Amino acid sequence: MNEPRLIAGIPTPYVGYTQVKPEWLDANGHMNVAHYLTAFDDGSEPMFADFDLGWDYTRRGVGSIFTVSSSLDFRREVLAGAPLALTCQLIAFDSRRIHVYQEMFQRDEGYLAAQAEFVFAHISFATRRTTPLPEAARARLEQIAVAHASLPRSPFLGRACGLDWRPQ
Prior knowledge:
- It is built from three helices and seven strands.
- By secondary structure, it is an alpha+beta fold.
């Protein structure tokens, strides 16, 4: 994993850190599929906190970001205690949705363990429906989009899942 650069004070990409917890293991002795989502969620928090739609926003009770679409690819297993680095790159956004690409690296060995693509929607707690992103969040997302435009786009983005799929 390359270290993120700062462009106009914006990490490109954002990076979050966690480690494989014992309760995340399954009978195969590696991180269970469900906990990859937990790790990616943890890894997206630095970016979402930057544009004030992270967990602090949710706790204020106005609204939240819900996952509406995801695609996950498992490249190599990770074992108990493995330190993880999770990158988060803004791909696109509109008035109500945010599209991101993430990669999970095993930090000690430096390998790509998984990659994921997510689309999130901004939800109002009052109506439980999508609602426009707050203006301040959209303004910050504009700045992040400019900085992240310099990052390469993974061929993983938008790929189809099926038996004809071949790893790159």
